[in-house]
């Protein structure tokens, strides 16, 4: 398993860090077998596997449940798990206790939190030994306010984002996920910070990249963002299921090759 200090050295040596989301045992197993450096149990699972319209409905229990499955599938990969909507910033004592619960019960190596307001939370987590990844730029939990569009499009907004990222690092963040921002800005932020910056829709000047498993494999995806590249195609699952359905209807499945052949009733004398 890559440790945080190894991820840091990868940045220093300009070796790119790969990250992919995974939400269950088989996807985590595949990610580990593919030697992906880090796995994110993203709250995008709300859309990709639970069928919600956004990440807003995802609960802490959902994240723990999926986080545990991912850990079982990828025991030797650095795993980051998302703190879901509404768990940070409401009450100091409560958010720390939720962070502890998520970190301890999911067995992840770090938790990830969205938004520029979280620096004090990062410090509190750091103080008790919970590594935190900060997610800035487009933060899907705030989709009701910012929508799904490129962020930091003006000089003023770009300067604010640079400052926000510095604040995260100062507060003790161990990595940053930067989503949907202009590539020259993402490159500048990556060069400014000492911690790894993992981009999604942020160009190739960051220290690493993250994509969503279902987008990469075209698995049940309804809309694809501009920055997604599809590397495989699981969409033929529908054709396979239709064929199964037909074969059951026609009685051609199961055939002899899928049937236990030991004869029992031939040896019994009929009444
Ligand atoms: O939840 C998620 O999958 C994410 C990625 C888009 C970075 O936060």
TrEMBL record:
It catalyses: (6R)-5,10-methylene-5,6,7,8-tetrahydrofolate + 3-methyl-2-oxobutanoate + H2O = 2-dehydropantoate + (6S)-5,6,7,8-tetrahydrofolate. Mg(2+) binds at residues 43, 82, 114. It is an enzyme of class 2 (transferase). Keywords: Cytoplasm, Magnesium, Metal-binding, Methyltransferase, Pantothenate biosynthesis, Transferase. 3-methyl-2-oxobutanoate binds at residues 43-44, 82, 112. Its cofactor is Mg(2+). Binds 1 Mg(2+) ion per subunit. One of its GO terms (cellular component) is cytoplasm. It comes from the Bacteria. One of its GO terms (biological process) is pantothenate biosynthetic process. Its main location: cytoplasm. Belongs to the PanB family. PANTHER family: 3-METHYL-2-OXOBUTANOATE HYDROXYMETHYLTRANSFERASE. This is 3-methyl-2-oxobutanoate hydroxymethyltransferase. It comes from Staphylococcus lloydii.
């Amino acid at each position: 398993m890559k440790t945080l200090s190894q991820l840091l050295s990868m940045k220093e040596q300009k070796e790119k860090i790969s990250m992919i989301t995974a939400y269950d045992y088989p996807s985590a197993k595949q990610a580990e077998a593919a030697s992906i450096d880090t796995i994110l149990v993203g709250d995008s699972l709300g859309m990709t596997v639970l069928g919600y319209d956004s990440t807003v409905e995802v609960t802490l229990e959902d994240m723990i449940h999926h986080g545990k499955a991912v850990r079982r599938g990828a025991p030797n990969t650095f795993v980051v798990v998302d703190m879901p909507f509404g768990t940070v910033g409401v009450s100091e004592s409560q958010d720390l206790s939720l962070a502890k619960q998520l970190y301890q019960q999911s067995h992840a190596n770090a938790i990830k939190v969205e938004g520029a307001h979280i620096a004090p939370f990062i410090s509190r987590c750091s103080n008790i030994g919970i590594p935190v990844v900060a997610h800035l730029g487009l933060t899907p939990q705030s989709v009701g306010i910012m929508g799904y569009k490129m962020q930091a499009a003006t000089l003023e907004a770009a300067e604010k984002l640079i400052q926000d990222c510095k604040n995260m690092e100062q507060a003790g963040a161990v990595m940053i996920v930067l989503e949907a921002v202009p590539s020259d800005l993402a490159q500048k932020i990556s060069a400014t910070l000492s911690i790894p910056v993992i981009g999604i829709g942020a160009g190739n000047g960051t220290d690493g990249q993250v994509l969503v498993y279902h987008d990469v494999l075209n698995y049940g995806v309804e809309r694809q963002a501009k920055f997604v590249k599809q590397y495989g195609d699981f969409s033929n699952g529908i054709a396979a299921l239709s064929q199964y359905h037909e074969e059951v209807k026609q009685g051609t499945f199961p055939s002899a090759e899928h049937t236990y052949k030991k004869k029992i009733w031939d040896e019994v004398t009929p009444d």
